[in-house]
Specification:
The protein starts with 9 loop residues before the first helix and ends in a 22-residue tail after the last helix. The chain contains 3 helices and no strands. Helix 2 runs antiparallel to helix 3. With 105 residues, the protein is mostly helical.
């Protein structure tokens, strides 16, 4: 009377086991991503300054504030930045470093 057996064959067990593993892997991955997102502090976005990237002077000030460079280094680099930040016509031309060109007198 019963032409089809009611038990699962080998492929049925394999599919069920693989589905269970994928379900738990997905559940664990979602949990890890949620925990990482909640533990991470507010990210620095460019939305606070209208999408513009920070100026070289701002980057230098941040390095000084973090203690990566000392005050003498900060002032020296700031002077160099301010000397080279004039309008394009007033900036000194960079040296020509192409092969075959003389670098000095």
């Amino acid at each position: 009377m019963y032409w089809y057996p009611h038990g699962m064959n080998g492929w049925g067990w394999f599919a069920m086991g693989l589905g269970t593993l994928l379900f738990w892997a997905l559940l664990i991955a979602v949990g890890v991503f949620l925990l990482r997102a909640l533990q991470r502090g507010p990210e620095r976005t460019q939305a606070h300054d209208g999408g513009r990237s920070p100026t070289p002077e701002q980057l230098l000030a941040e390095r000084f504030a973090r203690g990566e460079i000392d005050e003498d280094e900060y002032r020296r680099r700031l002077d160099v930045l301010r000397q080279n930040s004039g309008p394009p016509g007033t900036r000194p031309d960079p040296p020509d470093l192409r092969p075959g060109k003389h670098r000095g007198p």
